[in-house]
Amino acid sequence: MESRLLARTNKITNTSGLSPTHLQANLLILPSAHAKSFHDLCRRNPVSCPLLATTPPGSPHTLNPPQTIHSPDFDIRTDCPAYRIYKHGKCIAQRRDILDLWTDTDDYVGFLIGCSFSFEDALGRAGLKPRHQETGAVVPMYRTNLPLLPAGVFTGATCIVSMRPYRAEDVERVRSVTRRFLATHGEPVAWGWEGMRELGIEDIGKPDFGEEPVIREGEVPVFWGCGVTPQVAVESAGDKIDGLVFAHEPGNMLITDLTD
């Protein structure tokens, strides 16, 4: 797919709006010793971590299910626009590829997690184009007080949400459009200023990831589950994870061949 080639050659970053009708995916790659625990985490938290596909241990070129990506030259180490590297729960670097960090002898497993960018085309067709697409910004994302159900070493984390502002009278239409996209977070988990406070978000103008939102008069924040949540789970696991962990840079997704 052209978008993945652009990512591989470092010609794109923010993937919102690219390859309409195709599912975009968040990414987490970790040592295979922790793969079962992370798989269990996804199954226990399907709104925040809807699992789309995995790689076999040690193989950056293959996905299960195989129809996720058809390209024979696919490489999970290059085909995201940007990556984060974690060690002992801390992000220690950002990279455009991780070719030299996952070699042929390394035993890693990759997980693709559904991304809310996947339903943005449907919102646009309904006359509800997300604001960050209008402004060319990265969608704002926030830490919440919603606990993530634990699994193995992944304990003590809370959920991340992404936010798109809409007029209060449009919220029900927004919910209706996104509800069927269960593989990519589905409908909003909260909306409105009271909903924001219930999530434990204190300042809408200061997202933890992404860029500051533009909210106009008469609009309210609308929040969805977010696939950056696994990165927070890695932070909470800390030094319980031996070795490096790799993830996508928020807003820089892997575009799959699956359709919405």
UniProtKB/TrEMBL annotation:
GO biological process, one term: glutamate metabolic process
UniProt cross-references to InterPro entries, sorted A to Z: D-Glu_cyclase, Putative_hydro-lyase
Membership in a protein family: Belongs to the D-glutamate cyclase family.
Keyword Nucleotide-binding: no
Organism this protein belongs to: Aspergillus glaucus CBS 516.65
Keyword list, A-Z: Lyase
Domain of life: Eukaryota
SUPFAM superfamilies: PSTPO5379-like (SSF160920)
Cited Pfam families: D-Glu_cyclase
Name of the molecule in the record: DUF1445 domain-containing protein
Signal peptide region: none
Phylogenetic placement of the source organism: Eukaryota, Fungi, Dikarya, Ascomycota, Pezizomycotina
Keyword Lyase appears in the UniProt entry: yes
GO molecular-function terms, A-Z: D-glutamate cyclase activity
